[in-house]
Known about the structure:
Elements: E1 2-11, E2 14-25, E3 30-34, H1 39-42, H2 44-54, E4 63-69, H3 81-91, E5 102-104, E6 107-108, E7 114-115, H4 120-129, E8 134-138, H5 142-145, E9 152-156, H6 159-166, H7 198-210, E10 214-217, H8 224-229, H9 240-253, E11 268-269, H10 277-281, E12 282-283, E13 288-289, H11 291-294, E14 299-302, H12 310-322, E15 324-329, E16 332-337, E17 341-346, H13 365-372, H14 377-380, E18 385-388, H15 394-398, H16 406-423, H17 440-443, H18 448-461, H19 465-481, H20 489-497, H21 500-505
Parallel strand pairs: 3-4, 5-8, 8-9, 10-17, 10-18, 11-14, 14-17
Antiparallel strand pairs: 1-2, 2-4, 6-7, 12-13, 15-16
Helix pairs in contact: 7-16, 7-19, 18-20, 19-20
Amino acid sequence: MFCRVKGVGLNGMNAYPVDVELEMSRGLERFDIVGLADVSVKESRERIRSAFRSSGIKFPPASVVINLAPADVKKVGSQHDLAISAAILDAIGEVNSDISDSAFIGELSLGGEVRGVNGVLPMTISAKNSGRRRVFVPKENAREASVVSGIEVYGVSTLKELWDHLCDREKIAPMPPYVPEAEDYDGALDFCDVMGQAFAKKAIEVAACGGHNIIMIGSPGSGKSMLAKRIPSILPAMTFEESVETTNVYSIAGLLDKSQPLITRRPFRSPHHTVSTAGLTGGGTIPRPGEISLSHNGLLFLDELAEFQRSTLEVLRQPIEDQKVSISRASGTVTYPCSVMIVAAMNPCPCGYYGHPTKKCVCTKKQVSQYLSKISGPLLDRFDLHIEVAPVEFESLSSGRKEEPSSVIRERVQRAREIQNRRFRGTGITCNARITSDILHEVCALSPDANALLKDVFERLGLSARAYDKILKVSRTIADMEGAQTIEKKHVSQAVRYRTLDRKFWANE
Ligand SMILES: Nc1ncnc2c1ncn2[C@@H]1O[C@H](COP(=O)(O)OP(=O)(O)O)[C@@H](O)[C@H]1O
Ligand SMILES: [Mg+2]
């Protein structure tokens, strides 16, 4: 007796179809699983046998061998229980319907309940892409799976329920497809709460328009955290593809909100400065996505940047550049995406008041430069804009003036992004911050006097080649915000104003 049932495997973000092949013969009673199954899969045997007993299904007193194909890929996790159980039910003649177009995902408890598993969204997408028309998933993951259109989703709470369904005794109702709610920014933090700070707000708007990384330097209480927390409210809406990509990361990390199966708001993550390297970039014995991947398609806020472990920050450099993190383990390499906008904030010196208009800084010159040198040059190079945030003036705080709401800023951001989308169509580049060096000069055409200004700045400040590229890209964004084709002198000079560290702190050393 031979039968085959479809399951799905998962390696990092990567879901792939698995065939559960069952061979049952008379002979010595045994139950084996082969096909590069790790310990967690082998333990399936005990769970399944016990779950069958608890559900009142007689386990076949025969020789049962399960092969998980393809046999050359290592299988981990407990999500194969349900597919293996379906194969056994089929072998003992308890399946009346055609299940060749169905995939099964889920873990069993000894008592026969179907437990939720991580990564149901990418596994359901894989099932659909490999031609399955139905997928059986744990009840608690059913809403998550129902995000995928074009495949029928059945939420299963017990093995008994699956048995009743497959032998046509009592059918499980399919999950209605999930229709994402319109994105709703009500109640989100809004820029209208921030009084004054026109310069910082403009710089942040530029960063949001071009997807640029930005670092803010200023004394405590100047409003850096307040500004950063409001950036998600002006970022362009997520596309459906971006939503699914981000949700996949959360699904794998097991962090998906059960009532909100599709993430439609760009993530905002703000890890504490005591975060470990693995916590920030991903890792662990069983690899998990880190904060940078949980921010995928959104924003990673590094508050008090100078307080982070230097070694932890250094590990960020590669992922920021590549927009992905690879983690190697004996069982293979997993890769998580991390296309993020990085926003950082820091004090200018240990006491926090270097450069403050009224309070006196008590640090020595050496202490100030030591403080800044906690952040390595190559890491700082990853920030396209660096701005100083001065404390808000009393007049701004007390003026009672209404500040511009995020919704208005967001419309401008959206417009600037549309220009970029048209420019980069078909290239895989998503925004100005990601312009590759091969097309940099073609895309960032300068007027003659803009070129002269940039040359002058480059020589006077002794800029690195990378800093030069960054200024060029930020100038491109500023020109886009005005709908200008060619980058003019004023755009370059505004971009240079957002390079505080080149001009002020580092230049003095
Ligand atoms: N421009 C501003 N408008 C309104 N409130 C402000 C402004 N700047 C600072 N504040 C107030 O000061 C508090 C401290 O700001 P915060 O963002 O925590 O400063 P920082 O992160 O720079 O130390 C804010 O929570 C807010 O109440
Ligand atoms: Mg703060």
